[in-house]
Design goal:
The protein has 199 residues and is an alpha/beta fold. It folds into 2 domains: 7-148, Rossmann fold (3-Layer(aba) Sandwich); 151-193, no CATH class. The protein has 8 helices and 5 strands. Strands 3-2-1-4-5 form a 5-stranded parallel sheet. Residues 50-146 form the Methyltransferase type domain. This is S-adenosylmethionine-dependent methyltransferase.
C-alpha cells in the first residue's frame, strides 16, 4: 500500500539540504515575494491561514508576524516541534497553532474555512495528490486563495539528462533510497491541470 511520506526519520537531513542550501534560501525568498503579492489581493484583515504539510514552519511563522492566525499541519512530530520552535523564536506563539495530523484529516481541526492555504512541496510526497487538493478546496473560504508549489517531474528529467543519467530516465527514474529527498511522486503539470478540482 502506497503511503504519504513522514519526514521524522530524516528531519535533520531535510533541514540541511532543503532549507540550509543557497538554492533553498533563494526558493524561500522567491516564495515570500510571491506571497506578498498574493496577500495584497486578499482581504486586508487578519487572515486564517492553513499551512498544509508546513514542515519547519518558516513561511507560516513569517505570516504570523504580519498579524495573521496560522494553523500548521504536518504528519511529522519532528517537523511540528521545529515549527513550534520557529514560532517561539519569532514571538508569534499566540497566533500559531500546530496540528500533528495527516493533511487529509485537517478539516476536523479547523474552526473556520481558511482565507489562504499553503501547499508547498507536498503533492510530490503524497500517494493521492488529486484527492488531497479536493480536500484542501473544501477547507478554503469562497473568496480565499491556494498557494500551490510542487516538484515538477520535467525538472527531474532535465537534471538527470544533463548529468548523463539516460538509463535512469529511460527506466522511469525509480527511487533508489528510502531516505532520499528525491520526491516519491514528482508531479507532471499537465496532469494536475486535468484534475477535477476548482482552479
Amino acid at each position: 500500500m502506497i503511503q504519504d511520506r513522514n519526514f521524522d526519520d530524516i528531519a535533520d537531513k531535510f533541514a540541511r539540504n532543503i532549507y540550509g542550501t543557497t538554492k533553498g534560501k533563494i526558493r524561500q525568498a522567491v516564495l515570500w515575494q510571491d506571497l506578498q503579492t498574493l496577500l495584497a489581493h486578499l482581504p486586508q484583515r487578519p487572515l486564517c491561514i492553513l499551512d498544509a504539510g508546513g514542515g519547519e514552519g518558516r513561511i507560516a511563522a513569517q505570516l504570523a508576524t504580519l498579524g495573521h492566525d496560522v494553523v500548521l499541519c504536518d504528519l511529522s512530530a519532528q517537523m511540528i516541534h521545529r515549527a513550534q520552535q520557529q514560532a517561539k523564536t519569532l514571538g508569534v506563539e499566540q497566533r500559531f497553532r500546530c496540528v500533528q495530523s495527516a493533511i487529509q484529516d485537517i478539516g476536523t481541526h479547523l474552526e473556520r474555512h481558511a482565507d489562504l492555504i499553503l501547499c508547498h512541496a507536498v503533492l510530490e510526497w503524497v500517494a493521492q495528490p488529486e484527492a488531497l487538493l479536493q480536500i484542501l478546496n473544501q477547507c478554503l473560504a469562497g473568496d480565499g486563495a491556494l498557494s500551490l508549489m510542487f516538484y515538477n517531474k520535467h525538472g527531474l528529467v532535465i537534471r538527470n539528462m544533463l548529468l548523463g543519467n539516460m538509463a535512469f530516465v529511460a527506466a522511469g527514474m525509480p527511487k533508489r533510497k528510502k531516505r532520499s529527498l528525491m520526491p516519491d511522486h514528482p508531479c507532471d503539470p499537465a496532469d494536475w491541470k486535468k484534475w477535477d478540482w476548482p482552479q
